[in-house]
Design a protein that fits this description.
single chain; alpha+beta; Immunoglobulin-like; 5-stranded antiparallel sheet; about 20% strand
Length: about 725
């Protein structure tokens, strides 16, 4: 039997989409081979002919750029570097690092230095990072070059004196731009020893930046018998929104510090300074920590080192295979398997019940059965391609659309409308086939197509076991390869219906249609009601009880609209106008829903759960405490399943206590840039993400589906 015209056209469209994308993969993968090695893209030369100053020059290739804020300079054992002098860069809005400055073509840096008397060579390490800004758009990993340069004959190493410290404000920090500077530039910190018992600390800020006095903490590393007594100068009174009445310092502040205790046995002191400041009228920086080594004998200034973790790095497309340990074909296979398993997930099953009924009704009509399968598959594939393009273009994550309360509310109402249709409250006619209402119409091609669209939309909260790696690959792969991964996901999701639609042996296993199908349809409406209820619960966690109240009002108005729509079939034009007015009324509560502030999040669980923050994680890691980081969201079904099966109960609490592990939880139900950056740093396509940090060493990422034995093994290993 020949396929109907619509079936043949749909089949040809699907084949054409797949062939076009397949043909572009090889060329896209070959593009990355044309990238220059990092040392050719950024050719670094150094000049040490001027005593006390080393000059660096980068020749930057065409279509490449360097980040100013990602440059770092560190002297060797006998070399103390001063603040690097760099020109202002071009303003650039980076999707991961925010407002930054970059350099094209070339850039020069001038770095003052002093040498120890024993120095015979000028050694330093130079770290930098840059990107290729046209297709394929990738960023190189941070690259470090070790320089070993001759010392000019007239170079001296007297050490920086007190006058040098007081005049050390860098000319590059003019503060003319309203864009916030990197923390290292906004708050320059240095220290010297006047004598063995008196230190002099100095913070230098550009115009428009200030430092909090009461948020500054000083301590000595590896010297518990010594204490510090700072003598703060008079500052500027400041009424702060977070700290109340406080004192701040603009431009610069010099702080005398007295060292108490027996210092005779110390030649150097390691000073740790933690402080916080803001841009006036702009952003406030997170607490910063700097470590300074002070030579008590010579009074020389110290090498300043930022102790806190660096900012999460941009995912590197060039390192996709190495960092993710997965090939293109493995990613396709994993994506296909993940799509298959999505059919069993609770968030997708209610929508699939609609198609199941359609296949049952068309069991004795092969042409209709194939049409059902093709149009549903077309809806799934088109939706996955569209979703993939949005995710790649906006650099967002899988499931992130459910962070929008408005999207959650609309999905809940769609589920309610479909359920009301399955319960017999309303029957959508063919004249409405091109609207979203046809999601419940099982007979038309448009209804089949939009049911596939709905299946993809509601599938995003569910993460199948194999989907995480495949999606992570897609986020850092070239666009054509990424699109094929999303298509493989769609084919996996649609495969059961394609198989039943085109394999007669499978279709003969379907039961014969009968009156029992009407009862089954009404029964299957209840999972749709439950899905709408679950989405209402997610909305309550996002925007509180007021949001649920508005959603319920909208649901009543929607039910009234559908009821009157059914009643108006045999009535006049006025009744149809009333349907439109009622439909418009349902939009009013949604408008007010969008204006509600986020709900206050109550930390649940138990006393051993710690809310995620980079600062707290950094503090725990420095203390040598194992940490289990759990990134979750209320709309993530896999997250909730893991919590119920593994991450709750006395067994998990006993494991935490036995291993001395801190359970740190990040809630991504609402948009959270800090958690988003953490996900991106681990190439995670979304939640759940589980990372175990041991006492020492890098974190270990766990699979998205947990078992108690897997978690126990990871925590016991981390505690060693």
């Amino acid at each position: 039997m020949r396929l109907p015209r619509y079936s043949r056209a749909a089949a040809h469209l699907l084949v054409l989409m797949i062939l076009l994308l397949c043909a572009s993969v090889t060329g896209a993968q070959e593009d990355t081979h044309n990238l220059l090695p990092v040392t050719e893209a950024y050719k670094l030369t150094a000049d040490s002919s001027t005593p006390g100053v080393v000059k660096l020059h980068w020749a930057i290739a065409q279509d490449y750029y360097l980040y100013r804020g990602r440059m770092n300079f560190k002297g060797g054992d006998d070399v103390t570097l001063g603040a690097a002098q760099l020109p202002d860069g071009e303003k650039h809005d980076d999707p991961y690092l925010g407002p930054v400055e970059i350099y094209h073509h070339h850039v020069d840096a001038t770095i003052p230095y002093t040498l120890a008397p024993s120095a015979i060579r000028l050694t330093l390490s130079v770290r930098y990072q840059g990107c290729h800004e046209i297709e394929p758009k990738i960023c190189y990993p941070p690259h470090t070059e070790q320089l070993d340069l001759p010392i000019p004959a007239s170079a001296a190493s007297p050490g920086n004196k007190l006058s040098d410290l007081l005049d050390s404000r860098p000319s590059a920090l003019t503060g003319d731009s309203n864009a916030p500077l990197p923390a290292e530039q906004a708050f320059q910190f240095s220290a010297i020893a006047q004598d063995s018992r008196h230190l002099l600390l100095r913070w230098t800020m550009p115009k428009g930046y200030y430092l909090y006095r009461d948020q500054t903490k000083l301590s000595l590393k590896d010297a518990p018998q010594l204490t510090l007594t700072p003598t703060w100068p008079a500052g500027t009174p400041h009424q702060d929104a977070h700290f109340g009445n406080t004192t701040v310092y603009f431009d610069d502040v010099t702080l005398p510090v007295t060292v108490n205790g027996e210092v005779a046995s110390f030649k150097t002191l390691a000073l740790i300074a933690s402080f916080q400041g803001c841009q006036d009228g702009g952003l406030c920086y997170p607490p910063m920590t700097r470590e300074v080594n002070i030579d008590l004998a010579s009074g020389s200034s110290a090498t300043v080192e930022t102790v806190q973790d660096p900012a999460p790095q941009r995912p590197l497309a060039s390192a996709k295979a190495d960092s993710l340990n997965v090939s293109f074909w493995s990613a396709l296979l994993l994506a296909f398997g993940g799509g298959l398993i999505l059919n069993l997930m609770p968030c997708v099953l209610p929508v699939l019940s609609i198609k199941a009924l359609g296949l049952l009704e068309s069991a004795e009509n092969p042409a209709r059965r194939r049409m059902h399968a093709l149009m549903y598959t077309a809806g799934v594939l088109v939706s996955f391609v569209a979703l993939g393009l949005v995710i790649i273009a906006l650099k967002t994550a899988w499931g992130a659309h459910l962070q929008s309360p408005l999207v959650v509310a609309v999905l809940s109402l769609m589920m309610l409308a479909v359920a009301l249709s399955m319960s017999g409250v309303v029957q959508f006619g063919a004249s409405w086939g091109n609207t979203g209402s046809t999601l419940a119409n099982r007979s038309g091609p448009a209804g089949d197509f939009f049911t596939g669209v709905l299946a993809v939309v509601v599938a995003s909260p569910c993460t199948a076991p194999f989907m995480g790696t495949a999606l992570a690959y897609a986020f850092v792969a070239p666009v054509p390869s990424a699109m094929l991964v999303f298509l493989a996901l769609g084919l996996g999701l649609a495969l059961p219906f394609l198989a039943v639609g085109f394999i007669p042996a499978l279709s003969r296993l379907l039961p014969r249609p009968g009156r029992w199908m009407e009862t089954l349809k009404e029964v299957l409406a209840f999972p749709m009601y439950l899905t709408a209820t679950w989405l209402a619960w997610v909305l309550a966690n996002q925007r509180g009880a007021d949001a649920v109240g508005l959603l319920l009002v909208t649901a009543v108005l929607l039910a009234m609209t559908l009821w009157w729509f059914e009643r108006s079939r045999e009535r006049g034009a006025f009744s149809r106008v009333l349907v439109v007015l009622l439909a418009l009324m349902t939009l009013v509560p949604l408008y007010y829903l969008k204006t509600l502030p986020p709900a206050a999040r109550v930390s649940g669980g138990n006393a051993t759960t710690v809310a995620f923050s980079p600062e707290k994680l950094d503090e725990l890691r420095k203390a040598g405490t194992p940490v289990f980081v759990d990134m979750t969201a209320d709309w993530c079904v896999t997250c909730k399943a893991n919590e119920h099966a593994v991450l709750s109960g006395d067994g998990f609490q006993a494991l935490l206590k036995r291993t001395g592990t801190v359970y740190m939880k990040g809630d991504w139900t609402d948009e959270n840039p800090t958690i988003t950056a953490f996900l991106q740093a681990y190439h995670s396509p979304g939640v759940p993400l589980y990372v175990v940090f041991p006492k020492n060493g890098p974190g270990r990422q766990l699979p998205t589906v947990l078992t108690h034995s897997l978690v126990e093994e990871a925590l016991v290993e981390a505690a060693k």
